[in-house]
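Data deposition worksheet. Section B asks for the primary sequence of the deposited chain exactly as it was used as input, without tags or linkers unless they were present during the calculation. Section C holds the resulting structure in token form. Section D is free text for depositor observations; keep each observation to a single sentence. Incomplete worksheets are returned to the depositor.
Section A, Depositor: J.P.
Section B:
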Amino acid sequence: MLPLLMLVWVNVHGGFLVGFALVGIYWFSAVWQWSRLKDVRFDDALRKIRAGNRVRALTLAGILSAAATLVNPYGLQLHLHIYRYLSNRFLMDHIDEFQSPNFHYVAQKCFAGLLLLTLVAVAVKKREIGVSQGLVVLFAVYSGLYASRNIPVSSLLLILIIGPWLSDAMERLAGRRIALGWQASPSAGFLQRMKAIELNLRGHLWPIAAVNYLEKQNIAGPLVSTDYWGGFLIYRLYPRVRTVVDDRHDFYGEEFLKSYLKMLRVEPGWADFLQQHPARCVLVPKDSALASILLESPDWKPIYTDDVAVAFVRTAAP
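Section C:
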């Protein structure tokens, strides 16, 4: 199934490269197992045959998957584009989602908790961990610590490994509770706390209320906002209002993003971006440096503010 899935994956998201990392991990594990097994005993000979078959199956799946990735509108140019994007040091060093995670935020704290849980699980199960499981854990931990954007995939990979171990541990714990006559479920309180956290986060991830206001007021574009809000703004406002930037950084180019980041961080020449891309409206986080300086600028007037975002419209022609 993997080559067919890769055919879809390569045409919807650049993360298809993760698929090859995982194929490589399981291929290496199968080769390692095949090379270490001796065929002296009958059982070992059977295991070596199975390992050899697995090596051949993964090799064939990897080759067919690689060929499937060429079936896209750009062919090999897509791979070159991704390589140039990921090897651009300016983008990797300045785009927030490619930075190492800041563990002061909720999602990153959850990932840190998952890392600690993984360390405990590995310590307990160290004698039962296979080569492939160990390599997946190392790959997931490194990926998640290297860049914040990798945290969702890294979390899924870690759960792939430690999930069965956690299930076994929970079943044993439940059995002991029943034997002791305890009725209250320890997970119920946890689920209630997680629900409360999710409810408190509503409205703080996206400028939902601010966008509702802009829609009602029929505010015209172009609209300048942060790159990480851009996708939501396009979803809500396109095609009536055009958004200047979103988080598809590879489409904009290095020079565009240099000018954008200069504006966002209010560095010398920060207003050039707003002049080069004549925005009529600016929507930024309330506590951002850009919001603070626009509040002092006679060229911009705040028309909406809440705990998440503040919206400005231009008072003079660009």
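Section D:
The chain has three domains: 1-87, 89-200, 208-314.
The chain has a mean pLDDT of 87.
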